[in-house]
């Protein structure tokens, strides 16, 4: 086996270069600091009243510095302090909204859907439509840069089997069956998220799905500073900002970085390739599907042949 270490490239920020996205933004401003960029991000928020309140309180708290997590093995870029999301440091950008951008969903709306929807897939669609109706309103009547769809702490209870449905199942549920239920619940949440994102595209306003528990992260979640970094970096990008860019040594030289992944077909019968993410130097990307691959009996790890790798990039790019 021949190994070759590929050094991680530095990134270009507004005032300098750095290997770490967080440190680069913190110290040298985002890449587009001297260009047309979002200096203020107007957000809309959709969710239950208590969820909206939690999200707003949390966003306000993130205007200030947040200490990073203490680690037994310190690394300067591992658990970076969050600089705060404000116009004076880091992103040098601020959040804006008023009460007319807050669209509150009633508990009774969710309860009514559960009562009338016996089919779980129908229930997912009906709940997504509660958000989609408000996304449509905000896109037509207001001018948000990004719309936050807040999910309550008990949101998963709406998209899983009801108690009566569960009672009909065998009471002697073993560990394997329990794990399968957890996987199914996770898949249902993914179905909801995908449906909501796909349908929301017609309104031409980026959305960000966020759980209200982000306001008080539990021990099984990321630390507060990391959550803030991830959230506000995504928000800045979705508002058409460019946090960082790849360094171009020559104006005529362009490098495309492609991430190759593998996925099962809907009927689980085949494994196929996809170019999961193709990024140019400004981080703009797309997703493209490729051809089927053959899994070998002695090696269950997916591999592309030389010809398949060539065809995937030649045809798609």
Name of the CATH architecture of the largest domain = 3-Layer(aba) Sandwich
What is the CATH topology descriptor of the largest domain? Rossmann fold
- CATH superfamily (homologous) name of the largest domain: Response regulator
Strand content: 15-25%
Work out the count of structural domains: 2
Sheet with the most strands, sense and barrel status: 5 strands, parallel
What separation lies between the terminal Cα atoms?
30 Å
Described by its quaternary structure, the protein is single chain
CA radius of gyration:
22 Å
Succession of helices and strands: EEHEHEEHHEHHEHEEEEH
Helix content: 25-40%
Give the overall silhouette.
globular
CATH level-1 class of the largest domain: Alpha Beta
Mean pLDDT across all residues, rounded?
83
The class by helix and strand makeup works out as alpha/beta
Note the total helix count: 8
Q: Count the strands?
A: 11
Low-confidence stretches at least 5 residues in length (pLDDT < 50)? 163-185
Question: Can you tag this structure with a few keywords?
Answer:
317 residues, three-stranded antiparallel β-sheet, single chain, Rossmann fold, alpha/beta, globular, 19% strand
Please explain how this structure is put together.
With 317 residues, this protein is α/β, with parallel strands linked by helices. It folds into two domains: 11-168 and 177-245, 3-Layer(aba) Sandwich (Rossmann fold); 254-316, no CATH class. The protein is 35% helix and 19% strand. Strands 3, 4, 5, 6 and 7 form a five-stranded parallel sheet that branches. The model is unreliable at 163-185 (pLDDT under 50).
């Amino acid at each position: 086996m021949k190994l070759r270490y590929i050094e991680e490239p530095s990134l270009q920020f507004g005032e300098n270069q750095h290997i770490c996205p967080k440190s680069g933004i913190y110290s040298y401003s985002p890449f587009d600091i001297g260009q047309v960029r979002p200096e203020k991000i107007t957000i809309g928020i959709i969710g239950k009243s208590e969820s909206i309140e939690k999200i707003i309180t949390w966003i306000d708290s993130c205007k200030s510095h947040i200490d990073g997590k203490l680690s037994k093995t310190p690394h300067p870029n591992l658990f970076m302090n969050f600089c705060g999301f404000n116009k004076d440091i880091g992103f040098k950008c601020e959040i804006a909204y008023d009460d007319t951008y807050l669209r509150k969903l009633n508990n009774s709306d969710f309860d009514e859907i559960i009562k009338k929807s016996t089919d779980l897939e129908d229930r997912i669609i009906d709940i997504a439509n509660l958000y989609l109706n408000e996304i449509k309103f905000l896109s037509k009547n207001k001018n948000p840069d990004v719309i936050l769809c807040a999910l309550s702490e008990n949101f998963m209870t709406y998209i899983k089997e009801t108690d009566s449905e569960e009672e009909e199942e065998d009471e002697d549920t073993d560990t394997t069956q329990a794990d399968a239920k957890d996987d199914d619940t996770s898949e249902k949440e993914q179905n909801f998220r995908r449906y909501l994102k796909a349908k929301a595209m017609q309104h031409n306003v980026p959305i960000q799905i966020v759980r209200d528990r982000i306001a008080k992260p539990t021990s099984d979640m990321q630390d507060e500073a990391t959550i803030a970094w991830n959230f506000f970096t995504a928000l800045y990008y979705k508002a058409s900002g460019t946090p960082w860019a790849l360094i171009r040594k020559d104006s005529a030289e362009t490098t495309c970085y492609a991430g190759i992944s593998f996925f099962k077909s809907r009927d689980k019968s085949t494994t196929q390739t996809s170019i999961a993410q193709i990024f140019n130097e400004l981080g703009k990307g797309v997703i493209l599907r490729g051809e089927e691959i053959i899994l070998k009996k002695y090696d269950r790890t997916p591999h592309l042949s030389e010809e398949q790798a060539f065809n995937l990039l030649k045809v798609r790019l």
